[in-house]
Structures are given as C-alpha cells and as structure tokens.
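Standup notes
- DV: blocked on the single-chain target, sequence here:
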Amino acid sequence: MPGVITKFAVTSMVMWMAPVAIVYGFYYQAFPGVSRMSSSAQTLASGFLAVISVNLVIGLYIFMAMKETRHQEPQPDPTFLANAKASINQPTSSQPSDDSKGKGKVE
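- DV (later): unblocked, structure below
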C-alpha cells in the first residue's frame, strides 16, 4: 500500500510541476528557438505542450496501475462451490409438490 501512495504522490507532483516548468521555460525563453517565435505563438505552444505533458503523466500513471494488477482468472468462492455441488447431488422427491396451497386465498 505505501508504494501506491508514493506513486500517486510523485505523479501528482509531476502533473503540477511539468506544465509550470514548460510555461516558465517559454516565458523566460529557456528553450532554443523560442526567441524567434511571436508572443502569441509562444503562448499557444506553451499551453499546448503543458496540456500534453499533463496527459502524458496521467497516461503513465494509468500504465503503472495496470501493470501493477495481477492477470488472474477469477475463482469462485470455495464455500459457494461446495454448497452448489452438494445441492446438485441431493436426491429429489418423486412426488410433485403443490405450491398453490394457501396462495391467493382471501378470507
């Protein structure tokens, strides 16, 4: 369980830090070639890349979660299975039962 919480905390932090770092890098022109872009192109590119980075982090978290689960065929409850087998093996009575007694009578 602590591993799950750690993965969640780390991916949550990266999900917040990656877009902020991208926008910061575009604003202060830390990436090569950004200085040649217009202001509106910088804004659009930084926003687009920030959204993509969040989606990549979410996808990575989902991938880690799916890799963590076991791929095992579901098994029936042993108690239920034993009771079901016992009920199948019980002999049935040869006389038909009349379930209509007492039903639908109004006194």
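- Follow-up: The helical segments are 2-27, 39-68, 78-89.
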